[in-house]
Amino acid sequence: MTAIVKAQTVSMKFKSVDALTDVSLEVAPGEKVALLGHNGAGKTTLFRIMLGFIRPTAGSITIAGHAPGSDAARKIVSYLPEQVAFPKMLTGREVVRFYARLKGAPLDDVQAVLAKVDLVDAADRRVETYSKGMRQRLGLAQALVGKPALLLLDEPTSGLDPLSRQHFYELIADVARQGGSVLLSSHGLSELEARTDRVAILRKGRLVANAPLSDLQHQANLPIRIRVRAAPGAIESVHAEIGGGRLNCASVELFCAPGDKMRLLSKISGLGAQVEDVDVAAPTLDEVYRHFSKIGADEARQGRE
Ligand SMILES: Nc1ncnc2c1ncn2[C@@H]1O[C@H](COP(=O)(O)OP(=O)(O)OP(=O)(O)O)[C@@H](O)[C@H]1O
Ligand SMILES: [Mg+2]
After folding, report:
1. Which DSSP string do the residues of 207-244 spell out, in sequence order?
2. Which domains does the chain have, with CATH numbers?
3. Is pLDDT at 305 greater than 90 in this prediction?
4. In this predicted model, what pLDDT tens digit does every residue of 211-267 receive, in sequence order?
5. How far apart are CA 203 and CA 191, in angstroms?
6. Is residue 305 within 6 Å of ligand 1 at its C-beta?
7. Portion of the chain with pLDDT greater than 90, in percent
8. Could you tell me the distance, in angstroms and rounded to a whole number, from the CA of residue 291 to the centre of ligand 2?
9. Are the C-beta atoms of residues 158 and 83 closer than 8 Å to each other?
10. What are phi and psi of 40, to 5 degrees?
């Protein structure tokens, strides 16, 4: 199927800053893709290029075959910026109506979209009375109005509590089920589990990963932690048999490559009654993310403005 966004070897240089280098990324219709990266990795810059706000220094980008920012592309794309700001004197409903008119969407959509983001009760209150999470949800409402084919959401879940976050992911799943595409930026892998089809990670402007989350876990090949609790009196022989480090007078901890896990587990089970319990812990998603975005504190500092 033709990609709704197609970025080919896109680079963006701001004077001495290489904000993006050779980034190629596609999003297909109905796909949900997460764009991750440290502060200054280039996420917002990529969105701004997709929207046609800025032109890349090199490479090309198309939105359903159209140039970013062209009338045809603007009809397709909706954007939720990193910092949502609306005129404080307007009500939530007035804001969404404004965007509906701008996009030529039927005004009947406004109420439905407000309901989707759970703002019906507050719809006729001024935005200045909204909490941060409510403003964020209003931002999402303006992005959803007019049923765009492509949603570009820059850190849409920042400021949302866990329940609202969950609700947000249900909304974007709905968008995708109806054939819409979603590209959203985020800072953490852990909240994305089973919620996006693919994860793209930028590191200092370069795309260092672009695969489903389960593939990334596999590719990272991070060690698996195994803890073995020995039966009373058996710790010495268990330790001698399987190695690792002694945790206390009853447990041993060892780390192994994913490919070695089954061999070790069968060795442990071969110890029979000497072993009381085994705990196997796969790397956390945060560890996987750190693996791909491996940046030390110094590098992170350089990346910031
Ligand atoms: N208009 C600009 N002029 C100069 N440098 C810029 C400009 N816009 C972005 N940059 C630089 O480009 C790099 C990427 O910035 P960008 O805002 O895309 O990062 P980000 O991944 O969105 O970060 P964050 O997570 O903090 O939002 C940074 O080094 C930033 O300082
Ligand atoms: Mg940003």
Report:
1. EEEEE-HHHHHHHHTPPEEEEEEEPTT-HHHHHHHH-S
2. 5-218 (3.40.50.300), 223-282 (3.30.70.120)
3. no
4. 998 888 888 889 999 999 999 999 999 999 999 999 988 999 999 998 899 999 999
5. 19
6. yes
7. 73
8. 21
9. no
10. 85, 10
Helix (H, G, I), strand (E, B) or coil at 36: strand
* pLDDT tens-digit series, residues 30-61: 999 999 998 999 999 999 999 999 999 999 99
Q: For ligand 1, say whether the CB of 139 is within 6 Å of any of its atoms.
A: no
As given in the structure block, the two tokens for residue 96 are: 């969404």
Ligand nearest to the CA of 293: 1
Strand partners, 207: 202
Q: What is the pLDDT of residues 94-137, one digit of tens each?
A: 999 999 998 888 888 999 999 999 999 999 999 999 998 899 99
- By percentage, how much of the chain surpasses pLDDT 70? 96
DSSP assignment of 242-273 equals H-SEE-SSSEEEEEE-GGGHHHHHHHHHTTGG
- Name the residue with the closest Cα to ligand 1, atom 26: 39
Q: How confident is the model at residue 303 (pLDDT cuts 50, 70, 90)?
A: very low
C-alpha dihedral, 75 to 212 to 56 to 47, nearest 10°: 50
Q: Are 228 and 252 in contact (CB under 8 A)?
A: yes
Three-state SS string over 151-178 comes to: EEECCCCCCCCHHHHHHHHHHHHHHHHC
| pTM of the full structure | 0.86
b vs e for 258-268, b when ≥16 Cβ sit within 10 Å of the residue's Cβ? eeeeeebbeeb
- The gap from C-alpha 229 to its chain's centroid, in whole angstroms, comes to 37
| Sign for the pseudo-dihedral over CA of 146, 149, 155, 160 | positive
